[in-house]
Amino acid sequence: MTPKLRLSPQMAAILAVMVVRPSHEWYGLEVQRAAHIGSGTLYPALRRLENLGWLASQWEDLGDDVGRPRRRLYRVTGEGELAARDYLARAERQFDAATWRPTPGEATT
Amino acid sequence: MRDLVQMVLTVPGVFVVVVLAILTFVLHIALKAAGNLAADEARGWLAKMSRGLVADAADRLPAGPERERYAEELAAELEVKLVERPISAVAWSIGIRYSARALARSTGVQLQPAQAARSDNGTRVAVALEIGATPTSIRRFASAMAAAVTAANLAVALGALTLTILGTRKGIGSVAIAATLTGVIAGLLFWMAQRRK
To answer: Exposed/middle/buried for B22, CB within 10 Å: 0-12, 13-18, 19+?
Structure first.
């Protein structure tokens, strides 16, 4: 059972994007573009997820003649994937409950 | 052929039209070249500004592996941004710079004060004191410079826009955009300097 955590919307957006491709190694800009979040919130959010153990990061392995600096790559950990799916499912249920409206057939008397 | 040219040029008004056409052509070439040069210059400055902002954000983390990690990580991301879109790279870098505090918090360390962050700042302060500069005089100077740059850039932008509208010069459009942007950035710096007074 995952402890009840309150994630920021940015952290939730990052997770939602990254669990779609759990084995993929993402670099910061890639996550930013996919999750549509600002640069100012991206790196602190990634770091907090890393601190939770939901993400792991490592330096990109570049050859000598690539001619650009190496990037930091992030991927969802096994624990992170389970926790994220659980968290996102719970958030979705809460959203459904909060936005539920009776359909005309279900109208109460 | 020579006679024909001489005959045509003697027709009233034709000479003036030909001279004007040549001048317009030369002006067009000159403006285009100036526009390209200005665009290259602006691109260089945008890159420099972005790198400075990112380096400053990393420098505000305490010296150690965290600072090294983010300095390298952010610099690598910035290089990609700069190749794709230099103007949005500046906006991206501003976001990074203003999130330095949040980044430091997320790493579990205290944010460095701006003065203590750069190792060479001590030297800068010593030089400033030696030439008789005070914090107020430095701020006033920075404020005046920012105001001058704002005014100059906005004047260039206005001129370039006018030329664009009158002459439909493509290169000048980018000069106008670059000048407006740098003018606005300098204006923001001026406003920030004023606010701190």
So the answer is: exposed
- Residue B76 is nearest to which of A45, A51, A71, comparing CB atoms? A71
Residue tagged 């983390």 (tokens) = B61
The B residues from 21 to 80 touching A (CB cutoff 8 Å) are 69-70, 72-77, 79-80
B140, amino acid identity? R
Residue B95: name the closest of A47, A85, A37 by CA.
A37
**Are the beta carbons of B81 and A29 separated by less than 8 Å?**
yes
Residues forming beta bridges with residue A58, ordered by sequence position: A73
| Cα separation, B154 vs B175, whole angstroms | 11
Record the pTM: 0.59
| Ranges of residues in chain A whose predicted pLDDT is under 70 | 1-5, 105-109
Helices and strands (DSSP H and E) totals, chain B:
9, 0
Beta-carbon contacts of A32 under 8 Å, excluding residues fewer than 6 positions away, are A38, A39, A42
Of B18-32, B51-65, B160-174, the least confident? B160-174
Q: How many contiguous H segments (helices) and E segments (strands) does chain A have?
A: 4, 3
Q: Is the ipTM of this complex over 0.95?
A: no
The region of weakest confidence among A97-106, B10-19, B26-35, B122-131 is B122-131
Strand order in the sheet with A26-27: A26-27, A72-76, A55-59
Q: Which residues pair with A59 in a beta bridge?
A: A72
